[in-house]
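Worked example 3 (structure in, sequence out).
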């Protein structure tokens, strides 16, 4: 069994603007819950903590194009999307 998994994270709206990427790849321990992606982003981009932390409780997660609960466990090769609330007019 592998000691790490790799997931592709799609970034939208505030996340994409803050990180200046539309997609990143993360290496995580096996059995990581999707909500831990948020912690990883804040540790990997500490200068963005103030900008991204307010979105934590409002962000929805999708794994492999399906909405997922925060405690959903990730598998190697999963595609994760961080979906902040959107507004429009």
């Amino acid at each position: 069994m592998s000691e790490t998994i790799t997931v592709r994270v799609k970034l939208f709206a505030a996340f994409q603007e803050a990180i200046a990427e539309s997609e990143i790849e993360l290496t995580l321990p096996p059995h990581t819950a999707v909500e831990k992606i948020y912690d990883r982003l804040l540790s990997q981009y500490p200068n963005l903590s103030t900008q991204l932390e307010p979105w934590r409780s409002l962000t929805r997660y999708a794994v492999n194009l399906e909405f997922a609960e925060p405690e959903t466990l990730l598998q190697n090769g999963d595609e994760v999307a961080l979906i902040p609330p959107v507004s429009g007019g």
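Notes: DSSP finds three helices and five strands in the chain. The chain has a mean pLDDT of 91.
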